[in-house]
Backbone:
């Protein structure tokens, strides 16, 4: 029969040694005096082994937490899509702490906290009707900038009388701030409405450390989303402008304050008999001079000004050009 994997762990070996010491001690205590003395030493050894067992358990838990932190950093920084990062953060918290539910709230432009992600232990998004939380605890975390842990909110003298805690039957609650460069950007709220004492200082410290990573990842994702949205708007505006330009039958040329041509439409290429690439970046005064030596005198290029040349029907007469 194959031995279980746990038997090869440090904790498993210590457990086995402790059992052996206790059994040997019990047998020797019933023997002669010298053997009873040895048995007492073995019994003390068993106690030490049990203490080492507890230390090994804590070390294993710490190792799991550190491994989880590394994994978390890789996961939440692997995407810049805000919705994905939000759900990854919340699901990871539920898995690490054993929470029943977890909510991630971020401040909007007005500074108001908004729930952007709410998930349960099944990694399912919660409906708004399932989002009953303790506003009192959230506000205390916002005001103090410090994490709050309660093993049973119903009996905790700090919060036991709050209506939301009583109404929603809230028990284990852990709430930590999200900070970016010492500025509070939101909070993470985890709870368990069924079991009390599910969170300890270990989970509080772990979640506080995780919140620092999460705040950076969320800010990166939010900035990326903002830049992407702005880029889409600029692209849409550019396409619209190009469509408008293309629909104009008259030649339209725009130039900057130094007289360098920045835009031209299709009609300009046809009338001037030059491709767009050779027109863009050229000097507008020089271009006008090719149409009529006197035409550049009709335009002034100064600081803070620009011009648009509208030329109709292929005519090069200065009266057919307008400054826009």
Residues:
């Amino acid at each position: 029969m194959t031995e279980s994997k746990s038997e090869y762990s440090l904790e498993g070996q210590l457990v086995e040694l402790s059992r052996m010491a206790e059994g040997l001690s019990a047998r020797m205590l019933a023997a002669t005096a010298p053997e009873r003395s040895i048995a007492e030493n073995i019994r003390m050894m068993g106690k030490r082994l049990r203490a080492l067992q507890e230390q090994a358990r804590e070390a294993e838990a710490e190792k799991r937490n550190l491994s989880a932190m590394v994994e978390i950093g890789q996961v939440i920084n692997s995407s810049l899509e805000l919705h994905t990062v939000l759900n990854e953060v919340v699901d990871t918290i539920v898995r690490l702490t054993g929470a029943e539910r977890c909510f991630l709230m971020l401040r909007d432009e007005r500074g108001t906290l908004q729930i952007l992600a709410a998930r349960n232990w099944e990694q399912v998004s919660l409906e708004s009707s399932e989002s009953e939380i303790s506003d009192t605890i959230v506000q205390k975390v916002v005001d103090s900038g410090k994490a709050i842990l309660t093993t049973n909110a119903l009996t905790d003298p700090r919060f036991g009388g709050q209506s939301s805690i009583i109404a929603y039957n809230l028990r284990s609650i852990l709430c930590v701030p999200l900070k970016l460069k010492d500025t509070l950007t939101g909070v993470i709220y985890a709870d368990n409405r069924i079991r009390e004492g599910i969170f300890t200082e270990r989970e509080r410290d772990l979640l506080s450390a995780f919140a620092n990573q999460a705040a950076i990842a969320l800010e990166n994702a939010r900035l990326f989303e903002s830049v992407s949205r702005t880029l889409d708007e600029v692209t849409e505006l550019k396409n619209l402008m190009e469509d408008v330009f293309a629909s104009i039958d008259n030649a339209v040329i725009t130039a900057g304050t130094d007289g360098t041509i920045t835009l031209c439409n299709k009609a300009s290429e046809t009338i001037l008999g030059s491709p767009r690439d050779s027109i863009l970046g050229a000097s507008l005064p020089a271009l006008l001079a090719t149409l009529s030596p006197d035409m550049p005198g009709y335009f002034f290029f100064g600081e803070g000004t620009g011009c648009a040349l509208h030329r109709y029907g292929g005519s090069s007469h200065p009266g057919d050009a307008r400054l826009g």
